[in-house]
Structures are given as C-alpha cells and as structure tokens.
Write a structure and sequence with these properties.
Radius of gyration: 21 Å
Order of helices and strands: HEEEHEEHHHHEEEEHHHHHH
Number of helices: 12
Shape: globular
Bound molecules: 2-acetamido-2-deoxy-1-O-phosphono-alpha-D-glucopyranose, magnesium ion
Strand content: 5-15%
CATH superfamily of the largest domain: Aminoglycoside phosphotransferase (APH), C-terminal lobe
C-alpha cells in the first residue's frame, strides 16, 4: 500500500469496532481493495479505493449502486429470502451521509460490510457455471423494474463501435511505437469489425433493447456460501444500461476459456462447450421470461463479441503503452490480446453448435 493513512480514511466512515488489521483483498484490475478486520463482535469491512481515472463520475457511480442494492434488497424482502445481508452488498455511510469519501488528495474511497464465510472462485465447474448463469439472469430480472434510470458509469463501456474507434485512434497515434509488431492482429480484427458492431446498428434501428446489466460477469464477481451455493453478486461499478450480451457473453469469455485470459501459451486457449451449455441453460432458466426473441437468437453472437471486444481493448492498451490495465510485465497486454484472439477464433468454430443448442432449449 502506498503511504496512505488508512486509519484516517476509515475514521471518515461510520464503522463499528476498532480496526485490527487491513490487508489486500481480491485481484481486480481496476480498483484497490482491502479487507478491514475489526476487533470483537463488530463486522469486518471492505475498503475500496475507487479508480476515478476510469470511473470519472463517482457520484453517479455510487448513486447507481445505491439504487441497485436498495432495489435488490426490496426484491429479496418481498420474496422472504433468508440471510438477506449476505445476498446483497451493504455500503457504509461516510460522516457526510454519502456512500463515498473524497480525501484531500482527490482519492475516492468507499466501505462495504464484509460478508463473512463466503468463498470466491477463480475457475468454474459445469455446476457453478449453471448457477452463475441462473444468478446473473436473476440479477437482470430483479433489475427490469428499477425505479429510476441509471447512468453509464463508463460511457459506451461495451459499445463495439467505440472500442473499434479507440483501437483505430491508438493505431493512428502509435504512441509506444509498437504498431509494427501487431499489424497482422489489427488487420484480422478489422476484417470482422463490421459484423461485431451489429448490436449497435440494431439498437439504432429500435430492434434491440438495452437493460440494466452487471457488465463484469466473472465467476470471481460472485460470492458463494460454504456449501457452494451462490449468495451474492458483487463488483457493481459497471452496473448500467447495456445489451444483455454484456452479461451473457462476458461470463463465457472468462468462464468458458480453458485457460486464464493472459495465458501466453495459446495451445491452452479454447472454448469449453460444456461450460457454455451449463451457463446458457442456467441463464435462460431465469432470463427467458423477459428476453425478446432477437436477444435469445443473438446469444451466440454475444459469445463471440466479448473475446473480440476484449482483444480490441487489450490491443489498444498495448499500442497506447499500457495506460489502462495493470500489467505485470511489458508484453502482458500483448499476451492477453493474442489469447483473446485465439479464443475468438475458436468460438467462431462453434457458431452452429451454439445456435443449435440454444434452439434445443426452447
Ligand atoms: C477489468 O477489474 P476487473 O478485472 O473486474 C475491466 C473489464 C475487463 C477485465 C479484463 C471497468 O475488470 O471490463 O473485462 O478487466 N473493467 C473495466 O480482465 O474496464
Ligand atoms: Mg472483480
């Protein structure tokens, strides 16, 4: 941790108990997250520094999260769910009543109650993929009637047209002088770019809706209880209006890849059909009732879209000189790019299988 007086930051929030220890938590690429252990009976907390270079409107971000968590809590209460405090995140107010605190160095902080006795998973099994599909579908279902419009915490976050224009801009600037090395990848992406921008066109034509989505549906953004049952959807920064493809496709991008998104050994990369089938089955179990036919029909497109989009994002960042994603070594973003491209290619080999499987579920 850099030289930040964490105790002083925590003192800005209405937390109970004396702080015993603060330690890093999780492995997100964007925010810094710590677990705050307290003495005695007081709950533990999660302290997060919000990356406001990426989430530039923290007020809007926290407003979205407040609306969403309050709405989910009401839904859980309405169906008499048990253990509600472990099924939805609870934010701690700062002394001024807000759910975040801005320090004198313009850093933004927030505190949540730590949900005890939970498990997070980095890898999926067919069983957990099914349950995650159902849970993310259910999350969207609970949010179909959010009482007020939510803003985009990152404008055009999953807009493929915008992501292509960012890549083109990176190519034009060639800021880190890395373009020669990746020209073939840029060309390959350009060949499919139009096809991958199809959702934006259909949206403009009024044929495809946007809904409130999670937009970062990884298995590690889900808490499980000790018995392996899904408890709670976490990491709500990107909850915003989007195509449902964001949730469905982005989960499979990580969950149905045989390896991690940054594995440099491309022989490990591939599309796991079994996980695809399990996740799709679970997702449609809860989402079917609100999805329109075109959304269902385009699910295979969503599976291809996300490795494609992530490849474009990693590549643009590599060309720009690694200004967005945290990296551990100089070619980290290039390895991620190649990995996602290999996954994209393999997904495309499964286009027909995916369409047939989704049809078979109707
Ligand atoms: C970022 O921080 P993390 O790992 O939850 C990114 C996602 C990418 C992901 C790639 C706000 O998410 O969109 O898919 O890295 N989040 C943001 O690993 O850009
Ligand atoms: Mg995360």
């Amino acid at each position: 941790m850099e030289n930040i007086d964490i105790a002083r930051i925590l003192a800005q929030f209405e937390i109970e108990g004396a702080v015993k220890e603060v330690m890093p938590l999780g492995n997100g690429l964007i925010n810094d997250t710590y677990r705050v252990v307290t003495d005695g009976d007081a709950p533990d907390y999660v302290l997060q520094r919000i990356n406001n270079a990426i989430f530039q409107d923290v007020d809007l971000l926290q407003h979205n999260i407040e609306v969403v968590t309050a709405h989910v809590r009401r839904k859980l209460e309405a169906c008499n769910a048990d253990d509600i405090d472990r099924r939805v995140l609870q934010f701690v107010k700062a002394r001024d009543g807000k759910t975040y605190y801005r320090d004198e160095a313009d850093r933004y902080w927030r505190v949540m109650v730590y949900i005890p006795e939970t498990i997070t998973n980095e890898a999926v099994t067919p069983e957990s993929a099914h349950d995650c599909g159902k849970a993310f579908g259910n999350f969207e279902k609970m949010l179909v009637d959010v009482p007020e419009p939510l803003g985009e915490t990152i404008p055009d976050f999953h807009n493929m047209e915008l992501r292509m224009s960012q890549l083109r801009e990176a190519v034009a600037n060639n800021a880190a002088g890395r373009l020669d090395e990746v020209r073939d990848i840029v060309e390959e992406l350009e060949r499919d770019a139009d096809e991958m921008c199809k959702a934006e066109r259909l949206y403009r034509e009024g044929k495809l809706p946007k809904r409130i989505c999670h937009c970062d549906t990884k298995v590690n953004n889900m808490l499980f209880d000790q018995q392996g049952q899904v408890l709670c959807v976490i990491d709500l920064d990107t909850v915003m209006p989007s195509f449902v493809f964001s949730d469905y496709g982005d989960f499979l991008r990580t969950g149905a890849n045989f390896t991690a998104e940054d594995d440099p050994d491309l022989s490990h990369v591939g599309f796991n059909e079994e996980i695809f089938k399990a996740f799709t089955t679970g997702y449609l179990e809860s989402a079917r009732e609100f999805l329109t036919p075109i959304e269902v029909e385009m699910l295979p497109y969503a599976v291809a879209l996300f490795p494609f989009m992530q490849c474009v994002r990693f590549l643009a960042d590599y060309i720009n000189g690694d200004t967005y994603y945290k990296i551990k070594y100089p070619t980290h973003n290039l390895d991620r790019t190649r990995n996602q491209l290999a996954l994209y290619r393999d997904v495309r080999r499964h286009d027909q299988m995916m369409a047939a499987f989704i049809c078979s579920l109707q």
